[in-house]
Design a protein that fits this description.
By secondary structure, the chain is α+β, with helices and mostly antiparallel strands. It contains one helix and two strands; from the N terminus they run αββ. A hairpin with an 8-residue loop joins strand 1 and strand 2. Bound molecules: zinc ion. The site of zinc ion has 7 residues, from loops.
């Protein structure tokens, strides 16, 4: 089987709705994950939601 270049989505859970992603994130946080964000996928072909690390840790100051 030949896979297309879907690197952006591979290895990540895809959720159909934001709620699902939020729930998944909560589970990860419960296991000790930190700074995870729920975000809509950039890829139109995907059209889902993902849970991932924030691009930049936000500093308050
Ligand atoms: Zn995606």
């Amino acid at each position: 089987m030949i896979r297309t270049k879907n690197r952006a989505c591979t290895g990540k859970r895809r959720h159909d709705s934001r709620d699902e992603a939020v729930e998944h994130r909560a589970r990860l946080l419960a296991r000790g994950a930190v700074r995870l964000a729920v975000y809509p996928c950039r890829r139109r072909a995907c059209g889902g939601w993902h849970v991932g690390h924030l691009p930049k840790p936000r500093t308050t100051r």
